[in-house]
Amino acid sequence: MADDAAAVIRALGLRKVDVLGFSLGGYQAQDLTRRHPDLVRKLMLLGHRPARRQPGFRPGVERAPRPGSDGGRLPVLFFGRSEAAQQAGRDFWQRRHQRVDQDPPSSPR
Predict the structure, then answer these.
(1) pTM of full prediction above 0.70
(2) 47, 56, 85, 109: which could join 80 in a potential S-S bond, CB 3.0 to 4.6 Å?
(3) Rounded to whole angstroms, how far apart are CA atoms 19 and 73?
(4) CA distance linking residue 32 with residue 108, whole number of Å
(5) Could you tell me if residue 7 is left (phi over 0), alpha (psi between -120 and 50 degrees) or otherwise beta?
(6) DSSP conformation class of 100
(7) Alpha helices for 2-109 (secondary structure H)
(8) What's the whole-number average pLDDT of the chain?
């Protein structure tokens, strides 16, 4: 996936890009940065953490919110800073959890 993303970036004629990896996309964003450092100016990871305690990760990463939890930061990350925008973010989060047609949770199996 990193090589495909690099090919698209180059095909668009871009020399340097800022990369944002959200959730699972954080893995692809890191791999793109590792495999093609000449293309990446900034790397931002949001809502991303290792699935389990994996060797080589700093202890601070281990204390990240559990998967499926926004840790109270979703409105801060994706909505404006005004109180109205933050309230819209909290309202969205409430509506999101009211859905009944959600995919089943992921599991090791």
Answers:
(1) no
(2) 85
(3) 20
(4) 26
(5) alpha
(6) S
(7) 2-11, 25-35, 59-62, 74-78, 83-98
(8) 78
